[in-house]
User: What shape does this take?
Amino acid sequence: MPEPIYALAFGAHPDDVEISCSATLLKLQREGKHVVVCDLTEGEMGTRGTRRVRRQEALEAARHLGYAERINLNLGDTRFEHSRENLLKIITVIRHYRPTVVFAPQPIERHPDHERAAKLIADACFYSGLIKIKTKEKKHLQERHRPKFLLYYLQDRFAVPSFIVDVSDTFEASRQGLMAFKSQFYNPQSKEPESYISRKEFLEAIEARAKYFGELIGVRYGEGFLYPNIMPVKTFSSVFC
Assistant: This one.
């Protein structure tokens, strides 16, 4: 069994994690934490790019951002459902990596895939802790594991964050990982059809959001997250410092 990691970040498509929380993931890695990214699909139904191109871009982003590993469950872009089969696939991943923290899309989003992914991942985090749900890896039964924290990142739809991470020291560097997805974002020379995220304004909006969240906590850049439970505080001064 591999050593447990600190953070497992799920995205419905390659680039979801980079759009939403890559500066936080980069900050964690600079603190010595191991981070793994799991994409549920290859984004093959996107307006721009091919399956092959998006696969290459995902690997390039992982290289820039230094993930310990990036995997893809290939559940089918626009086609994956909240099914027992898909739940077990995600549970198997959670039990393999045994993360402390799981990152997922927030439940209310613009893209239906993101909303389905949010429910799938949240349910998998809970069911992964049930001993009577059996999963195997290399013919061996996996041990149950329930992540300590499930955090929802904000992608397209605005929500008031439960907390904001100061990413002033990693936001600019995280953009290199984001821009590895060259087929998806603004390129005035591109001959492919325009999409929602290929507009120049989309990248500007990502930076504006980071600046806004940063302003709320008195720093240059911030990334906001939703925590659906009551936040435990063991050491008061470590939180309110």
